[in-house]
Amino acid sequence: MESLEEFYKHKFQTPPKIKNQKNGLFDVFTIEENMKYKVKTPAYVRRDFYKILLFEGENVFHFGDESIPVSGKTLLFFNPNTPYTYETLAPGTKGYFCVFKEEFFKDSLRIHLTDLPLFKPFSKPIYPLSDDLFAEIHPLFVKIKNEIEGDYSYKYELIKSYVSALIFSALKLSVSPAKPESTNAATRITAVFMEVLDRQFSIESISQKITCRSPADFADQLAIHINYLNRVLKKTTGKTTTELINERLLSEAKALLKHSDLNIAEISEALGYRDQSHFSSFFKSQTQYAPSDFRKV
Question: What would the pLDDT profile of 83-136 be if each residue is shown by its tens digit?
């Protein structure tokens, strides 16, 4: 996982002074100033910080096993649980991005960032903006940039309000408005199951290994009967426990095959398969491709 400090070091020849150390790291940049350092396309890894990007141009962003092209004016959100990368920025690309730790919002937001749909594990919140929406979003980044370079005593409180406006404006753009989650037992069990499943990922080296990968493993972790877990997940998600686990394993396998240098035997071992043949059989049954063939696609 790349830290915010490491991000500064590889992104800029002269890393900027870390700001707001007391309340959590935060900074904002223009894409134009980022491009002048001619940095390489970022590695496909998770970061330990959040990022909000206002993008003007064309590019392809890679999240997990999915590649999403964007064109024109676009608002994008990135979180520590979702590895990502993107193609080399084309000349003429413009925009802003801010980076921050969750501590930056300590005591400011009534909810945790991880409770928001924008920052759920493996979410891909990408919002194409009309001219009217761009006219609402763009000034917020300009204000953030102006404030961080100023010396107003309460500038970080003001910046928090602007970033909050970005977040909640994006939530309004969602096709399905976010609703408070039910607090019944089934919802809680599903949420814990998904957390246990997601926190095993993403695989970044051969030293990482998936240890919780069968329905029985998860039932043990949650201290409930496996049949009850199966009923709950089927009711709340429409999918069986095995289907949910396999979907997540397949997503990670695709990402590793496309974006990592691990060989197939190493990927198989990291994902908890007894041997490469079992992994290959699973992958082919799900995709119709052998892992080696998928890597060439």
Answer: 778 888 888 899 999 988 888 877 666 667 777 777 776 667 888 999 999 999
pTM over 0.85: no
Q: 3-class SS at 283?
A: helix
Asked if 31 contacts 97 with a C-beta cutoff of 8 angstroms, the reply is: yes
**Two tokens at 114?**
């991880």
What does each C-alpha distance from 105 to 18, 115, 121, 237, 241 come to in angstroms? 17, 13, 19, 31, 35
Contact assessment for residue 153 and residue 113, using Cβ atoms and an 8 Å cutoff: no
C-alpha to C-alpha distance for 242 and 223, rounded to whole angstroms: 18
* Lookup result for tokens 């919802």: 187
Report the interhelical angle of 226-237 vs 185-198 (nearest 10°): 100
Whether the CA torsion 111, 45, 201, 54 is positive or negative: it is positive
Scanning 40-178, the segments in alpha helix (DSSP H) are: 131-148, 155-173
Q: How far apart are CA 4 and CA 160, in angstroms?
A: 18
The amino acid at residue 53 is L
Name 112's Cβ contacts closer than 8 Å, sequence gap at least 6. 102
